[in-house]
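Reviewer 2 asked us to include a model.

Predict the structure of this chain.
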Amino acid sequence: MNQLDKTIIRNLVMHYFRVSELTGEPTSNLDITDDGVVNFRGNISYDGLGGSLQELPVQFGEIGGNFLCAAAGLTTLLGSPHKVGNTFDCSANKLNSFQYGPIDVGGSFTCRNNHSHIPNLIGVPNFCDQLDVTNRIGGIGLESLDGLPSPANVNHINISIKINDCPILRLLKYSSFNIISNSELNQIMHKYMNQRPLRPAILQCQKELIDAGFEGNATL
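Predicted model (structure tokens):
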């Protein structure tokens, strides 16, 4: 890739995004590889001034700070960085899946109030401090927890689910979680959070969920 091509890529990033050092100071000092991948030690944030996007205009690689692409009009996460040092926020877009999203997020992977239905968690990072996939729009929620990272790779989970359509008992393997879709359901699950041995806790929680009318959620 020649210098002209790298300049075009840099201009695309600067057109759609606010680029700043970790200190908040604006900069255009991007690292662009010979393959056209954009790496940066600081923060990259979609600002809306360049117009809406359906997909990210370039391929990002490793971002040291925050990568914020909320409310950008995205229908895919194609082009997302594979590693983000702090927060990755793709809220309020029109995504149908988390495919092509980052693999490793040092802070929170956040997707709130997405305007299209995402049925499961396939494609969320393998590693993140917090997973926040919540939706308060018209009952949109997960139908499956497939794709959930390993309990050792995430510290806290916030999710919205479809009541009686999403098995949730596997969450009891995790140390910290909230289900924002229904307070009664969340309260029952919290009673058994971090209880060990795990199998008796799952069976007791299952019975209580069924008795409360959440049969469709009371499986692994």
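The two ends are 49 Å apart (CA to CA). The CA atoms of residues 121 and 148 lie 6 Å apart. We have added this to the supplementary material.
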